[in-house]
Amino acid sequence: MLDFFKFFSKEQNKSKDVAKERLKLVLIHDRANVSPKFLEMVKGDIIKVISNYMEIDEAGFDIRLSRIEQEDENYTSALVANIPIKRMKNMGKNNG
Amino acid sequence: MGEVIVITSGKGGVGKTTTTANIGTALALLGKKVVLIDADIGLRNLDVVMGLENRIVYDLVDAVEGVCRLKQALIRDKRFEGLYLMPAAQTRDKNAISPAQMQKLCEELKEHFDFVLIDSPAGIEQGFKNAIAGADKAVVVTVPEVSAVRDADRIIGLLAANELTEPQLVVNRLRMDMVKRGDMMNIDDTIDILGIDLLGVVPDDENIIVSSNRGEPAVTEENSMAGQAYRNIARRLLGEEVALIDMESGVTFMEKLRKLFSGKNKRKS
Lengths: 96, 269
Ligand SMILES: Nc1ncnc2c1ncn2[C@@H]1O[C@H](COP(=O)(O)OP(=O)(O)OP(=O)(O)O)[C@@H](O)[C@H]1O
Ligand SMILES: [Mg+2]
Hints:
heterodimer; A: alpha+beta; two-stranded antiparallel sheet; 4 strands; elongated; B: Rossmann fold; 11 helices; globular; binds magnesium ion
């Protein structure tokens, strides 16, 4: 017998799952953009960590959130940072 | 000393006014002294939802500007002991009062009431800022839809920036039939995304419209599912642990139909 109600529900692609995925993505961007300080804070922390290993050009440090298209044509968010390196630190010495 | 709770949402039309009216009435029915403030200046609604529109003489702006004494702007709801409404001004705009004035008003009111509930206007502008200024606590209302949840998230961020760091969520207009067929985000989905505590879930219920037609909050309706949900929310605000209602027992029409069909199927097989 034909299931009358199955007909209405697309099991594979439930609209609530689509809603949830879209929300998650859009909120990543909303939350990052609401606070202009947010990316500055991330940037500050990255500099702190990286500086243990290399000397970087802080003025040329570029960081932003962007969307990347994946192979399955879905989009995902990515934190993209471009960090020019001035000089590597000599880790051998420190670990000595 | 009472508690000031702002009911807010970001997106319009998701049920702030309905929620304020029903929680307030439920708290009064539980013996608390409650004042409802309509902070939606220029678009007042709480008065009609409460059925008190014919009793307005003075309003919030009058009280703040000193045109009347604070007490004169309070309408006593004769049906519910301890319940009062401070209506919004209808012919002024949101800039008629400032956050500082609102804060002062709340300070004064909470000396005399157990609960001061503020019905916030939609949006994130001046009206919203006024509404949250004197609040100790925030309730965020949303419906399980992408745009409303997104706006709720924005509001949660703005509340946090204003020292209201632990808002509680009311998910309104949930439709179990849609949740079941995967066409509406369920409670877990919504909480998972917003990351705040749940205060309650209110089903989509036509009683809400019937009761706003009559100007009698749905909490007074013994058999209303939404009324029950709001009664539970009020008890949670008083610190009681109350389980979520089983929405499946209050089945909608489609649901009944579905149950009927699946029942038949079972017998055949
Ligand atoms: N649980 C519910 N079931 C059915 N209808 C509802 C429910 N909650 C609210 N409504 C209806 O939705 C409409 C909007 O509700 P309400 O006025 O409370 O929203 P609001 O957030 O205060 O709107 P605004 O942003 O304009 O102030 C009303 O017509 C109301 O009757
Ligand atoms: Mg309203």
